[in-house]
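Hey everyone, long-time lurker, first post.

I ran two proteins through the pipeline my lab uses and got sequence/structure pairs for each. Pasting them in order. The first:
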Amino acid sequence: QVQLVESGGGLVQAGGSLRLSCAASERIFSINTMGWYRQAPGKQRELVATITSGGSTNYADSVKGRFAISRDNAKNTVYLQMNSLKPEDTAVYSCNVRVATTAIINYWGKGTLVTVSS
């Protein structure tokens, strides 16, 4: 069973930066997209950013211009560079890998907590 392990979360002051990483425990084939989602306390999980196998990216409006997603296909790793962090960015960030073959399979990490203090 593929496992995704996130790292890089922590406590940072508003205006600071963090870089999240998500690595797969084994090689994953037929990846369609890799992405990051977040869930703040009392709120639903929301998309933060995704990146396709071809490198096309998509961002939530709330993070455009501040966050950047990237991936290393050889390492099956996806990154999220977060700059100019705001208190409202506080959430558990989870990575997602979507595989598309004859069916769609979604793999999820357990999440890493990002806390932004004001």
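...and the second, right after it:
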Amino acid sequence: QVQLVESGGGLVQAGGSLRLSCAASATIFSISTMGWYRQAPGKQRELVADITSGGITNYADSVKGRLTISRDNAKKTMFLQMNNLKPEDTGVYYCSAKRFDVSLTHWGQGTQVTVSS
């Protein structure tokens, strides 16, 4: 059974930090580009950052220099270190696993991040 389980969300003041984690099923972690997306109220879901199985990263312009994506292949876990958070970072953050063996993306249930001004 495929599972993506996020944790680490919460409420933080502007300028603060949070670290999100996504624990993935072993069956998909090694064959997927892992990513973080977020959805703010009334807005579409958008890519925050993703990372290939080989460690190549990609970031949205709005988060470059503040958020860092990483993955621990041995522990089948992905992380998003978020520093210098801004109110516009508020939203539900979703973990994704885009498989490269089939045209399929798996999603986690989401974790809420709220940044107060």
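Reply from user beta_strand_b:
Welcome! Quick read of the second one: The chain has a mean pLDDT of 96. The CA atoms of residues 23 and 75 lie 8 Å apart.
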